[in-house]
Amino acid sequence: MIDLFANPLILGLALLGTVLGITVGAVPGLTGTMLIALSLPLTFSMEPVSGLVLLVGMYVGAVSGGLISATLLRMPGTPAAVMTTLDGYPMAISGRPGRALGLGVGASLFGGLVSWVALWQLSEPMADWSTKLGPFELFSLVILALALLAGVGDASRARGLLAGSLGVLVAMPGMHPATGELRWTFGFTSLNEGFRLIPVLIGMFAIGKILVDLTGKDGLVEKVSGNDSAWIEPGLWKSQLLNLFRSSGLGTLIGVLPGVGANIGSLAAYMAAKRTSDKPEDFGKGSEEGIIASESANNATVGGALIPLIALGVPGSVIGAVLLGALIVHGLQPGPLLFRQNPDAVHAIIGTVLVANLMMYLVMLVCARWIARLSSVSKKILFPLVTACCIWGAYALNGLWFDVGVMLVFGLVGWRMEKAQLPLAAFVIGFVLAPVAEENLCAGLMASGGSYFPLVTRPISLALLITAVSLLVWKKKGSAKSPRKNTP
Amino acid sequence: MPLTPIRMRPFLRFAVSLLASLCLGAGAKEAFPEKAITVIVPFAAGGGSDVFVRIFQEAIRKNQLCPFPIVVKNLAGAGGTIGSRAAKEAKPDGHTLLCLHDGIYTAQHYGNADWGPSDFEPLAATGRSGVVVAVSESSPFESLHDLMKEAIRRPYQYVFGTNLGAPNHYSALFLQEGMPGAKFRFTQTGGGAKRLAQLKGGHVDLTGFSVAEYEQFKAAGIRALATMSEEREPSFPNLPTAKEQGVNAVHGLMQFWWAPKGTPEPRLSYLQNLLRQTMETDFVRTRLGNLHMEPFFQVGEPLLETVRSRSANLRGITLEKPTPLPPLPELVLGVVVACFFFVWREGKMQ
Lengths: 488, 350
Known about the structure:
The complex is a heterodimer of chains A (488) and B (350). In chain A, 70% of the residues lie in helices and 1% in strands. Chain A is an all-alpha fold and 488 residues long. Chain A has a two-stranded antiparallel sheet. Chain B has two domains: 9-128 and 252-315, D-Maltodextrin-Binding Protein, domain 2 (3-Layer(aba) Sandwich), CATH 3.40.190; 130-245, D-Maltodextrin-Binding Protein, domain 2, CATH 3.40.190. The interface between A and B is large, with 88 and 77 residues.
């Protein structure tokens, strides 16, 4: 593995992939999936190992880059960074953008390293474990995640749930995820695939945020400024070790499961940190623990998602599926035999996860001060630029103006929700998870002949559901003491 | 989760036309093709069909078989029907094609699409792949015959992991037809990799894989019971066919290339010729060999006969009523209304 990265060409490709990944991750509207799909044909003419190094570097970079725009603009560049907006942005506008970035970057590195160790040493047992979880368990896991939404952000429990269930509702039109029947399309063929994630995400967060700022009383005043250091003192990391390990562990474990990935990983880690924290009231207002939990977990899902890919040939994420295709096009046989037949390819993937995480850390730390200055660019310049990127990104996804329209409509929805103090993060996560829940529930019911009993007779499923119910019913101490500001 | 769709048309179109006009403009002798040829792949990038078309794309580029590049456009969703609808409605000028396997017949039969093979001009069939019926290593069944007998004795008890409405689902339906009385319980498991995970985890009792998938997964703790080909697969000479085990079922997967209805004849024959030349390249031969696909090639009258017989084969198959599923959209609507009420009450209390 080491001699592979002694080759300056390979090292250069890893760096190129990481930097490109960070860039698309940071720009609202562009995503890692898009970058990797575009680059895939370019790798055909490369050696398989070089191609894999480039693609895995992009994957790591893209998941990490999302924290930049999430922190400085409150616009998550990737779905994985949604939870980071909750605390990163408040910290940045309170005059500490450098520190917020530093915490996110450091936590990302930690999460990446933990999942790298798991990928390197525990691939086989973890991949076997993941197959034990069937449709009923995955459904219960999503239900638990939806219950967690009640506590997201600074909002009340009812508002979190309302925002989350609205997200689920918006996911309903289009193709039934299990049977493929059409529903709620009202005769529009453009709606056959439902609303797509990226237009909804950038509409809600980017366009919605711009509308809020433009129509707000303080207009364009609210601004991130500050030139503080991104260097985080080692003492803080030491005091956050438990949080770091718990969040990275959760991220890795959840990343292994197919289809749930980075969103549930960072949500679960964030809520676990909030519930065990000494200062839960800080969450949603710029909590250091919150940033650390979300960012270490979402980077940990990268290594996690590669585990079933390497051990079984089963992709754990959309990007994983593209990498799988890359292996096949390069004439490699993914699956349990890959380790024996093509150890070079496996070592390239595992090694790149490590190298790209280290590069991501160095690049982002060195540039943090410079990147943080980006947010002090006048919003009169920044907003038109971001809007243009969003329109381009939404259009480029499929070449459909429909998606641009969806993005603009959800911009209005996001703006309205913001005024009603409904947490946008809960909405987006509900939207992402609804089809996963439905597909698994329906698949489970088809396998059980329509019986719901396995939900409570299968131990893991039962445990997840009991946790979900207790989260909803159990009144958190002190929650009654934090009344919301009244909505006008 | 709605896969973040991976499409690249605007970028690639631009880059490709730029490149083409720069260096290849003088190469074309005829008016066709006058620009890049877009092949719609109705599945996500990285899937089996995507890889298959990209092998052709690369072979055409490497051997300079066409003055203009081939552009792959992934239009995934709804079991391939989103992409096939787009291809059906594309301009019939030969610059937009569809590559879709037997899913084009099954989607129509299953009712997911009200269009089918007869709405296209069949160009060519390229590559044939067998189907392997597999169980988990811990399964008590050693032969397909025993399993089918058990499925007659205890109908609807054995769970078959399928992709509903896809060819894989029809493999199972053909098995049922092949031994009257045998009934499976079908569940939605999605693509090959997901079926492997479900089989390994004991969530389904049996499933079908393409030969390539089986080759890829066989070391992961699964056992093949039969192939559904006419003859034994050359890669697995010890694996008996379903027919040998008394189950009169034959099924396999072919990749078909389709042009929109009304594409002019000279252009069709140009494209058929292009596909034939591509098929004969060493690159395609080796790569298809790696995927355990037979380098089968068919055009003209034999192709039309194949298309007709594959449509006719499905006609005898009856679908049973699926498991009743909960009306989730309505339930969610109810939850939203309830949450609205709580938020409203909360506002009043303050």
